[in-house]
Specification:
Number of domains: 2
Helix content: 40-55%
CATH class of the largest domain: Alpha Beta
Low-confidence stretches: none
Structural class: alpha/beta
Number of strands: 8
CATH topology of the largest domain: Rossmann fold
Mean pLDDT: 96
Number of helices: 9
Order of helices and strands: EEHHHHEHEHEHEHEEH
Largest sheet: 6 strands, parallel
CATH architecture of the largest domain: 3-Layer(aba) Sandwich
Length: 218
């Protein structure tokens, strides 16, 4: 097997978790007597970790609410609804199996570690992954490069020739900072903004072909 690695974001890249994240966010808001946010609104808040998610979702809360307490509530609510509707994007399971023949695979997500591992396990992709680095396993979050570098270290993979695949500016920013090649998933629910991507895919199953083409150009 190659010493090169492909690191994947989770939400918006491997899994569509919008509905369950929205449910948990709105349960937190209900705890504080606030009305629910739309799915589009809660989705737009995702990508920078749970603390930022709750901070953004509670902007209209009355003074005196505790961010730490609200984050704890989010953790409990999300645990209870983790896999109500969350599912793999089309082509993910088959494509990961194919890629795992030649690449080391891993997940690097800002989602808390326990939730990330539970989703990968329950949706049947954990066996294809050499490592999962979620929020809390590394002190820093994407777009810092440290979570990606930790994943490479834990998997015994090399930086040269490795990729980060994700749907959010934080994924691309982390890849660019770490020196990995970056692939943007346009089918996800994040935004590329001004971050550089070496490749763009519209469907997850396009990834093997895109990687082969990148190797030919290198």
């Amino acid at each position: 097997m190659s010493s090169r690695m492909i690191l994947f974001d989770l939400d918006g890249t491997l899994v569509d978790s919008r509905a369950d994240l929205s449910t948990a966010v709105n349960l937190v808001r209900a705890d504080y007597g606030l009305p629910p946010l739309s799915l589009a609104t809660t989705t737009s808040l995702v990508g920078d970790g749970v603390r930022k998610l709750i901070e953004r979702a509670m902007r209209d809360a009355a003074p005196g609410w505790s961010l730490d307490e609200a984050v704890q509530r989010m953790g409990r609510h999300y645990h209870d609804h983790l896999l109500d509707e969350t599912c793999l994007y089309p082509g993910v399971a088959e494509t990961l199996e194919l890629l795992a023949r030649d690449w080391r695979l891993g997940v690097v997500t800002n989602k808390p570690q326990a939730h990330a591992c539970a989703i990968c396990e329950k949706l049947g992709i954990a066996d294809t992954l050499a490592v999962v680095v979620g929020g809390g396993r590394c002190p820093q979050l994407k777009p810092r490069p440290e979570p990606l570098l930790l994943a490479l270290e834990l998997a015994g993979a090399e930086l040269a020739g490795s990729w980060m695949v994700g749907d959010h500016r934080t994924d691309l920013g982390a890849a660019n900072a770490a020196g990995l090649r970056a692939c943007f998933c346009a089918f996800g629910f994040g935004q590329q903004d001004d971050q550089r991507a070496d490749a763009v895919i519209q469907h997850f199953a396009q990834l093997p072909m895109v990687l082969q083409e990148a190797d030919r150009r290198a």
